[in-house]
C-alpha cells in the first residue's frame, strides 16, 4: 500500500490497566484475530488499518502501550500527538475501573486538550463475571464527557463499531478544525495543527 | 493485577537519562531482556523536562533529604559468599537552586523568591481574561514547518526552497551589483502595540503549556543523535522544529548571524567586502582537510589567531568563533576548523540553521528510546528504587540487584547512571559543574515580524577564565512555553560558586529584571523576565571509569549530561558501552516499519513476534537513506556553486 493512499490519517492510542484486553481489541480490529493467551506484542509499534467511510479512505494508526502500563511507566511522548484515546477497562475487574481517574489525570496532563476519549468496557463475553455495571460506567463516562461502549474482543462484539464510530468523529472534528483553522489557528500546545499538517502533506 | 517483576534479566539499567535509554533500546533490539528502572517518578533523570507545576515539585524534591538507610530487607536476600554494594539514594547532582518571580501576582501582593511558589494557592487563583492574546495568534502551519526527519517530503521541499531562494537572491544581487545596506538598530525593532503583562497566576494556570528542560541542547542536523534517531527509526516517535536564528552579541548589540548564502547577502551588519570575505572563507574551509597548507602553520596556535591571520575583520572573527564554530577563545585551530566544518555540513539539511529542537522539549528524546526498548520487550519501572548490588565473593562480579521491596533480580550486566553510585565508590572522583538558568520572558531578545523564532545565542565570556554562555530562546510553538512568552535557557561551565553568580550578569545585560508592573519606555528594548530559576548541575561527563573504586567489572556507569551544546557525548557513550557488552552486535539497527510487517493469519497465533518481519525491510530502509543523503549532497553541491 502506498503511503499516499488515503484521505485522512489519525493516530489512536490505547490506554488502561494491563490485562484489560487492549492488544486484543487492536488485533481483532486490524487482523480479525483473537489470539488467546498471547504474550506481549514484541516489535510491533502500532498497527494500521485503512477503512472506507462515505467514499473516503481513512488510515488509522493504532498505538498500543508496549507494556509500559504494567508498572505505571507510560512515556509522556506516547500521548503527545494522539487524535483519539481509547481508555479501556475490564468489566469483570473492579480494580481496572477504579484506576480510570488516574488514567484521566495522565490524559489531562499530557494529551492535547481536544483529544477525543472513548471509554471502553471490554470482555462482555464474560458477562457472568461482571463486576462493573453498565449503568455505573455510563454515568462515569457522562461526568467526564467521554463516549462509552462495551465490547468483546473475543466475540468481536462492537469492535468494528468502536473504531468506525471513532473514525467518523475524527473526520467531522478534522473538518471543523480545518474550517476554524482558516480564521483562527488552534492554541499552541494543542499540537493538533502539526498532526494535520502531516496528514495533509502526505495527500 | 498483582504484577511482580520477573526474577531474571540480561541487563538491568538504573536511570532513564539519554545514554541509559539509548543503551536500553539497543539491548532489546538485539533480543536481550532488559529491566529499566528509575527511582524518580518521571523519565529522563537530569535530562527530563517538566511542566511548570512539575518543575516546582522537582525544586522541592531537590531540597529534600531522603532516607538513606539500607532497607533491612536487603540483608536477607544476599547469600553467604555474597557482598552488598548499596546504591546512593540521595540526588546530589543538583545544587544552589534559586527561584525569582518578577511577574505580578493577581492580588498585588509583593512576590519574593520561593515564598511565591506555593503551588496550591496559586493553582486556585482564577484568571479572568487573557486579553491581548488574539492579536498574536500563531499559525504553525504557515510560519513553521515541523520537520519529521526521516525522509519526509516536507523536509526536502524545505531544503529545495532554501536552496532555490539562496541562488535566486545571490544571483539577483550579483547581477544588479547593488546591495542595500540598511542600518536600523535591530535591537530597537518592532514593539508589540499593546504591551501585555503576564501575571504569575497566568503562568501557573497555563503551567501545562510549559516543558522546561533541565539541560538545554539543540540537535545538530548531522550530529550523532539525529543520525541515530533516523537509523534506529526512533525518530517516528517525535517531531522537530528548525532552529530559525543564530544570534550573536557583539558591541553591546544582538545581531543575527548569517548562515546561508542568502542570509550573508541579506545581512545588514556586514559590509559588502566582509560578505565576500566570509563566503569565500566558509566555502574554502568547509573542506579544510584539502588545504593543509593553509592552516598547518597555525596547528599549535588558537583558532582565533588563525582567523586573524586570514584577514577576517573583528566582526567576522567574532561571528566565526562564537556563532559558527561555537568554540572557546582558547580552542586550537584544528578544533575550531572541525567545529566550523560540522556546523557548515549541518546547514541546509532541514533548514537554514544547523540545528533542530524537539517539540515538547529535549526531555522527549530519552522517552522515545525507552518506548523503542519497551516495544521490543523491555520492562519499565519508574518510581522504583534499587537498594543494592549483589556481588559474588569469589568472582567479584555483580550477580543481582535488590529493589526497595527486597526483591532480588538476577542479571548479567548492570548499567547505572552515576548519581546512583554510593560515596564509597566515588570518593576519589572530582566533578565539574554546569551553571544553568531558566527564564520565562515576555518577548524575544531580538524582535522581528515573526514572534515564533527559535534562537541560539553564544554570549562571549566576560573575563579571561570564564566560559561562553550558550543561550537558547524557545517560542511557544515548540510546545515548551505558553503563548506570548519565551522560554530562555542559559548554560555554561561553572567558574563561580553558584549558577546565579555565573549567569546573572549575562541575564542583566540582556533582560529587564523588575517586579514593577508598569513598564518605562526606555526599558522596552529588553525583554522582561517574568520568572527565573538558577541551579548547578553536576557534570560527570569527563569522569574515567578508573576513578570509580571497587566497581564490579560487569557494572557500567553512564554519566549525566555534559556542558556541550550538542548531544554527541551521550550518544558516543551509549554506543561505546553497548559495544563493551556486545562487541559483535549491531548498535540500534532499524526497527521494522509497522506497515511493512506482514502478519500471516495462522502463524500469528503461535508466533506473535518478530518472526514475520520481511527480510528485505532492512535493505529497503538503507536504500531509502542513501537516496536521501544523495539529494542533500546534490543540493549542497548546488549551494557551493
Automatic annotation (TrEMBL), chain A:
The keyword RNA-binding does not apply. Its cofactor is Mg(2+). It catalyses: GTP + H2O = GDP + phosphate + H(+). GO terms for cellular component: autolysosome membrane; autophagosome membrane; cytoplasmic vesicle; Golgi cisterna; trans-Golgi network. It is a lipid-anchor. Gene3D superfamilies: P-loop containing nucleotide triphosphate hydrolases. The keyword Transmembrane does not apply. It holds the Pfam family Ras. InterPro entries: P-loop_NTPase, Rab, Rab30, Small_GTP-bd, Small_GTPase. Belongs to the small GTPase superfamily. Rab family. This is Ras-related protein Rab-30. The lineage of its organism: Eukaryota, Metazoa, Chordata, Craniata, Vertebrata.
TrEMBL record, chain B:
Gene3D superfamilies: FAD/NAD(P)-binding domain, Guanine Nucleotide Dissociation Inhibitor, domain 1, Guanine Nucleotide Dissociation Inhibitor, domain 2. It is found in: Cytoplasm, Cytosol. GO terms for molecular function: GDP-dissociation inhibitor activity; GTPase activator activity. One of its GO terms (cellular component) is nucleus. Residues 128-178, 603-641 are annotated as: Disordered. One of its GO terms (biological process) is small GTPase-mediated signal transduction. InterPro entries: FAD/NAD-bd_sf, GDP_dissociation_inhibitor, Rab_escort, RAE1_2_domI_C. It holds the Pfam family GDI. Keywords: Cytoplasm, GTPase activation. Residues 128-152, 162-176 have a biased composition (Polar residues). Residues 434-562 form the RAE1/2 domain. Belongs to the Rab GDI family. Substrate-binding subunit (component A) of the Rab geranylgeranyltransferase (GGTase) complex. Binds unprenylated Rab proteins and presents the substrate peptide to the catalytic component B. The component A is thought to be regenerated by transferring its prenylated Rab back to the donor membrane. PANTHER family: CHM, RAB ESCORT PROTEIN 1, RAB GDP-DISSOCIATION INHIBITOR. This is Rab proteins geranylgeranyltransferase component A. It comes from Xenopus tropicalis.
